[in-house]
Amino acid sequence: MTKPQEDNQESTTEYEAHSGVEERQGHLLFGFICDMRIAVVFVNVFNIFAISVGIIITGFQFKTFSAAWYAFENGFLGIALSIVGALGALNYVLWMVGAATAGFAIGLLIDLFGLHLIGIVVGALVLYPHAFLAYEIHEGIMSKETYTREEHIVENDFIKV
C-alpha cells in the first residue's frame, strides 16, 4: 500500500485545500449580477423597506392605528428574518443565514399552499440568495478570508453608451 501524499500547501479554508483552485468559486445572483453576500444584504434591506412601506400604506388607507398595527404584526416576522439574514451575511454567521433561510422557506411553503402568487414570487426571490449563501458559508467558499476572491458586482449598469 502506498501512503497518500500530504498536501503541504497552506490554504485559508478547507474548501481551497481540497479543490486546489484559487479562482472565484461562489455562485452569482442570476449568473452575473453580484455575489450572494451582496445579494442577501440587498434583498433583506429591500424586504425591510417593502414591509415598512406596506405598513405605512395600510395605516393611511384605513386611517386607523389598529390597521397599521395589524400590518406590523404580520410583517414583523419578515422584518426580523431580514435583520437576522443581513447581519449573518455581513458577519459570515452560518446559523443566522440558515435561520433566515429556514424562515423564508417556511413562508414560501405557506404562500404555496395558500396560492398567494405575489408571496410565492417574493418568497422565491428572497430565498434564492439566502440558500446559496448558507451553502457557500457552510462549504467554506464564502468567508472573511475568501471574500476578496469571491466579491463580485456587475461591471456596468446595463446601459450601452
From TrEMBL:
The chain crosses the membrane at residues 38-62, 74-98, 104-128. Keywords: Membrane, Transmembrane, Transmembrane helix. This is Uncharacterized protein. It comes from Cylindrotheca closterium.
